[in-house]
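Extended Data, panel c. Modelled sequence:
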Amino acid sequence: MNQAEFEKKCAAEGYAEIVDRTMAADHFNPEHAHEFDACVLLVDGEMTITRHGKAETFRAGDMCSLAAGTVHTEKCGPAGAHYLAGRRHPAKAAS
């Protein structure tokens, strides 16, 4: 998937915000979760995301999604990672 296709997909699925990020070589983010749904496109490099006890490695052109609240880790490859991340904030329940 390329950037234009990714942006079109994000817009169609309600990901209103897209951020452009880089992570350094071999960078590791320990277990955490986001308050938003994330749709990620690897532009360059490599990233391994571990969730639900399963590690998946993504490379340039690969895409993955994470629902808000999904506990996961992120580990970049030896060349780091450049990625685009679409963010979709779930609607809050009325009190």
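Residues 3-88 form a domain with the Jelly Rolls fold (CATH 2.60.120.10). This feature is highlighted in the accompanying rendering.
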